[in-house]
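Sanity check

After download, print the first record. It should look like this:
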Amino acid sequence: MRPDHSFIVDRVAAQHCAELLGPTTPSVAELAPSLALLSGRLALAFAGGLARLSGTEEPSVRPDAPRTLLASQLGHEAPDLASYAVLGIGPERHQVLLTCAADPVFRLVDRAFGGRGVVPKPLPQSFPLSAELLVQRLEQTLAAALQEALGGALAATPLQRDTRLSQIAPFTPDETVFELSMAVEEPGCEPWVLSLTFPQATLAALFAGRERKLPKLSTPHSPDPMSEPYASLPITLNATVVDMMVPFTRLAALQVGDVIPVAIARQVPLKAGERTIAVGSIGEFEDRVAIQINTAF
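Expected structure tokens:
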């Protein structure tokens, strides 16, 4: 019996394509366009949320281009005092880091109490209770804006918060993250910045394979005033029949039975609010005063 054998290949080994092997983690270049699209939607939603939070007009929220870096760089660039919050997206709680430096927090607190947004110098070592409460509302506003930007199906929930990034440690030091900064500009105040940091795994779960692609913007269209619910909407019309000047001495001497001669205009304006929609002349119809429309705008 000979121990050596000669093996012959009956067929070529199978080589499956990438589609059959299953989804792979998207590269940085593949995730960047989706994040840029998300940043624009997030800026619009966040501007509306800030207006509701402060009770003023919408500020200008300008997103910067997303920055790719290692998570270890975040610790090196961390300021002495800042608010860090981890948000969880969807039922899987995909993590996102919200960073807001101390300066804008104190500026917002000062404005909330009627000030002009003055930052105390030097900065305190920690946030007072008023700043903590404002930070919570700011987190909730940003979380709601993020949910809206993602289409509304995936809720964003604050999970934890601290003033030191090392206490949260949401990412491993060698993890690739994407930092999205947004500058908020308001009249009479210096611009302030906050940032969202997405790990690659979170963006891959949100955008990979387009299973959870961002919703398309709806095509704007003009409403039809002849269709419901506009067709049956009642509109108040005003017709100014007499518009004349009367001296104050004449008004002071008015008595019951006095007769004031008036001149009715030949062209009486018919208005809806402050807008003139037609003009006409005064007449009579079925024993009632009526306006015959001569010109309609």
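If your output differs, re-run the checksum step. Summary of this record's structure: The chain has two domains: 23-210, 237-249+262-296.
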